[in-house]
Amino acid sequence: MNCSISGEIPEEPVVSKNSGLLFEKRLIERHISDYGKCPVTGEPLSIDDMVPIKTGKIVKPRQAASIPGMLGMFQNEWDVLVLSNFALEQQLHTARQELSHALYQHDAACRVIARLKKERDEARSLLAQAERQMPLSSTPVSSNAAVSGNGKRVNEDEELGPDGKKIRQGISATVISELTDCNAALSQQRKKRQIPPTLVPVEALESYTQISSHPLHKTSKPGIISLDIHHEKDVIATGGLDTNAVIFDRSSGEILSTLSGHSKKVTSVKFVARDDLFLTGSADKTVRVWQQSDDGNYNCRHILKDHTAEVQAVTVHATNNFFVTTSLDNTWCFYELASGLCLTQVTEASETEGYTSAAFHPDGLILGTGTSEALVKIWDVKSQKNVARFDGHVGPVTAISFSENGYFLATAAHDGVKLWDLRKLKNFRTFSPYDSETPTNSVEFDHSGSYLAIAGSDLRVYQVASVKSEWNCIKTIPDLSGTGKATCLKFGPDAKYLAVGSMDRNLRIFGVPGEDGSMEA
């Protein structure tokens, strides 16, 4: 019989009462003193549980006086080696079992991922097929209009002028009266306007940090280049290089709807504060009017194809009944929202540059546009006349924002941000936060007109002051996308947060840490 540890015939054999296994006495006693359990079964074991077995005496040869010491030393080393080898064998067996289990889990995970990808592709295919088969008869159009096969509203009695351009009906006296009444009402309200007590104070804004990040767009074409916020619903819309617009609920952290239909990047997105309407402009030269249905999804009501080049900006009038689009084709269009009808398309024959940005004045009778040739043009909406122009920028004017008080205009371009006094029609301050190789991509006043935010290689927030007072930078936020290019930003209600889009696919929310109830990414 052999020892269960060494595999050799024991000199002093002992047997375990619990397992009945045979061991060399000195080996098992050393193992029990080290581990306190059976080396084979792993059960608790003590020296009292070992029963010695009587065997015949083994006669050993007579040895020299120094040899026994050497043999004893060798014997001890051998005992340690045998115990160590036994422990390694047990560890190897355990590792093999764990590896086998891990390989099984990995194989199962791969099968699940493959199945989910297949289901996702099938769902996308069914969705695309459903969109192609969606009936267009539900699109509301006027009595003298029809819908073409691609969903665009086309006037049957539409006429072309001598130059081959469409003849527009123009902005009627009724529309001008509506715009004037809105202007009078808003101007009267603005005189009594006070900064809301719920506005975030400067001290809180100085502590802004990223509180959430949400991957909304595709990884194949990352980049968020337009953004808007519905303040009443606290819903954020983004337009991306992946040709999609995404409607995102900030409070729940969930995507409400993904709007597909454009064939190129979505350059502008705008909410309309009535009837759950939503507008998108794209580099595919079209503008789409969407409306939310009862199931929460957005259906395309109109596809507008009045421009012949990339649509760069969409801005909604304060009445929420009209909107303007600007394009690189050197025109801007004034639309009636309900019908999707282009009332007028304005161009300057002497100019060749395209329009890259646009915004309505808060009172609604003035339109500001930026051009690809670094000009800022101010238009009288009623007469569609260019009443003022500002120069001094370098590069295309990427963004325009009017202050709520109606006195200030902020414009962004490659060389930075310029502030204009609309009462005296002159530039009174210039911010050049970045180097000559870094353009400023976005500029935005908050709704109260108390703060101004700039986006480029980082984010900067300034406290709004008067023409003669200093506008202090109260917060600088680094670009966390890793792209070095923040493309668009918007203040949330009462400046409680700042929504930022960059050249990755993530929407980032910056606010006061610990005071935000939205879903943490």
Characterize the structure shown:
The protein contains four helices and 33 strands. The protein is of the alpha+beta class and 521 residues long. The chain folds into two domains: 13-52, Herpes Virus-1 (2-Layer Sandwich); 182-511, Methylamine Dehydrogenase, Chain H, CATH 2.130.10. The strands form nine sheets. The protein has a four-stranded antiparallel β-sheet with strand order 6-33-32-31, with no helix packed on it.
Characterize this entry briefly.
By secondary structure, this protein is an alpha+beta fold.
Task: Outline the secondary-structure elements.
Layout (H helix, E strand, L loop, with lengths): L12 E4 L5 E3 H11 L14 E3 L14 H66 L12 E3 L5 E3 L17 H19 L10 H4 L3 E7 L8 E7 L4 E6 L4 E5 L4 E6 L6 E7 L4 E6 L4 E6 L5 E7 L6 E6 L5 E6 L3 E6 L4 E7 L7 E6 L5 E6 L4 E5 L4 E6 L8 E4 L5 E6 L2 E6 L4 E6 L10 E4 L5 E5 L2 E6 L9 E6 L7 E6 L5 E6 L3 E6 L10
Antiparallel strand pairs: 1-2, 1-3, 4-5, 6-33, 7-8, 8-9, 9-10, 11-12, 12-13, 13-14, 15-16, 16-17, 17-18, 19-20, 20-21, 21-22, 23-24, 24-25, 25-26, 27-28, 28-29, 29-30, 31-32, 32-33
